[in-house]
Every structure is written in structure tokens, then in C-alpha cells.
Design goal:
Elements: H1 2-11, H2 14-24, H3 27-38, E1 45-49, E2 64-69, H4 72-82, E3 86-90, H5 96-99, E4 105-111, H6 119-132, E5 133-146, H7 152-159, E6 167-168, H8 169-177, E7 182-188, E8 198-204, H9 209-214
Parallel strand pairs: 1-2, 1-4, 2-3, 4-5, 5-6
Antiparallel strand pairs: 5-8, 7-8
Length: 220
């Protein structure tokens, strides 16, 4: 347990967080995740919930970026490194600034966030994402996941994750489906250099052309 606690304290530091990501996965994780599942486009209004030190900006095109994280250390590091490339907010998913931005974002990211939140907090995150997204927008989540017949090493690592709420695929899907009509799950076992299972969810509320016309187009 002491090793796990020491690792957790290191990961709380932006430099330690970056180093650990390089060791276990490197840049390939970001590239695969973004290219195959997020598919960002230049100009997308993007909200990154739990952005950490905002390292994703090294791999994103020229989006209109807003990063939110509860850690002052992460937000300060993000401002120092990427200050000219986005807006960085310190707070939780109830931050008042975002409550006023309904229907304003094309893309919401929650990368490695849900497994740090209990069910009530996850519900708040999904509710916020649904409200701030445009009708054609999407939420993408990325988390460790328990699955049947999982590698013992993967299960051992997941049980010792800093996040105390690693869930099964069904549990994640149940929470997402309460807020989004379309939830597409993708399981990956090959993104890290160590055995691990990730679940990626693409969440949206598709609207037909007729629906958009009857409402006068997207609400801004």
C-alpha cells in the first residue's frame, strides 16, 4: 500500500503525471484515442472535463479549447504551458461559468475522469455535458473497466488505481444512457504497455433535420 500511496502523491504533480503517462503508454495512447474515437476538427468548441495539465493540446488541432480541473496545480501548469491556446478553469463540474454556456460546445471530453467519481458525481458530469453540448455535439469518455475473463494483472492494476470507482462496462453504460440516447461503447485491451482494459464511450443525442428546423436550428 505504501508504494501505491507514493505513486498517487507523485501523480498529483503535473511533472509526475506526464512522466507516468509516457512510461505506460506514451504518445500512442493520445493519438489512437483522438484519431479513432474523438475525431476532433479544427475550430471545434471543446470542453475538457478533468483536463489535468491539458497535455491533450499537444495532439489536438486548432480547437477552441476550455479545460476544467479541480486541481489548482494542474490548472496552473496548463496555463504556464498552453496559456495562449485555451481557457483554463479550476473547479468541479458545477462551476458557474459553465452552467451559463448551454448548447455552446461541439465536443466534451472526460478522459480518465469517471472512475474517480461516485455515481452522483458522474450523473452531474453527464448532465452538464448534455446541457452544454450543441444538438450535433458528442461526449467522449475514457476509463479503466472491469470485464469478464480479464487478465489478472489488469484486474490487479485497476483495483489499485487512484480512482476508487472503476466500474464494469454495464455500470458505465447505465449511467451514460440515462442522459444520452446514443451511447457507443468500445473496449480496448492494447493501449498501454502493461495489461489493462479501457472503455471508451461516444455519447450523443442525435436529432433529425426536421427536429432542427422545427426548433429554428441549434440553440446557442
Amino acid at each position: 500500500m505504501k508504494v501505491v500511496e507514493r505513486l498517487s502523491s507523485v501523480l498529483n504533480l503535473p511533472a509526475g503525471y506526464r512522466l507516468f503517462r509516457r512510461i505506460v503508454g506514451g504518445e500512442s495512447v493520445w493519438r489512437i484515442y483522438l484519431a479513432e474515437y474523438v475525431k476532433p476538427a479544427p475550430g471545434d468548441r471543446t470542453l475538457d472535463l478533468g483536463c489535468g495539465p491539458a497535455d491533450v493540446l499537444d495532439f489536438l488541432p486548432a480547437v477552441n479549447y476550455t479545460g476544467l480541473d479541480i486541481s489548482p496545480q494542474y490548472i496552473e501548469a496548463a496555463k504556464k504551458r498552453y496559456g495562449s491556446r485555451g481557457r483554463f478553469l479550476c473547479g468541479d463540474v458545477g462551476v458557474a461559468t459553465l452552467e451559463a454556456e448551454r448548447g455552446n460546445f461541439d465536443l466534451v471530453l472526460a478522459t480518465g475522469v469517471l472512475h474517480h467519481l461516485d455515481d452522483a458525481q458522474v450523473t452531474r458530469l453527464f448532465d452538464l455535458a448534455r446541457r452544454v453540448l450543441r444538438p450535433t455535439g458528442r461526449l467522449i469518455t475514457f476509463d479503466g473497466c472491469y470485464v469478464p475473463r480479464q487478465s489478472r494483472v489488469a484486474r490487479w492494476l485497476l483495483a489499485r488505481d487512484r480512482g476508487k470507482f472503476v466500474r464494469s462496462e454495464g455500470d458505465y453504460l447505465g449511467l451514460a444512457s440515462a442522459h444520452f440516447a446514443k451511447v457507443e461503447p468500445y473496449l480496448r485491451h492494447d493501449l498501454l504497455r502493461v495489461p489493462y482494459t479501457h472503455l471508451i464511450l461516444r455519447c450523443s443525442n442525435p436529432v433529425s433535420a426536421g427536429d432542427q428546423q422545427s426548433h429554428g436550428g441549434p440553440e446557442l
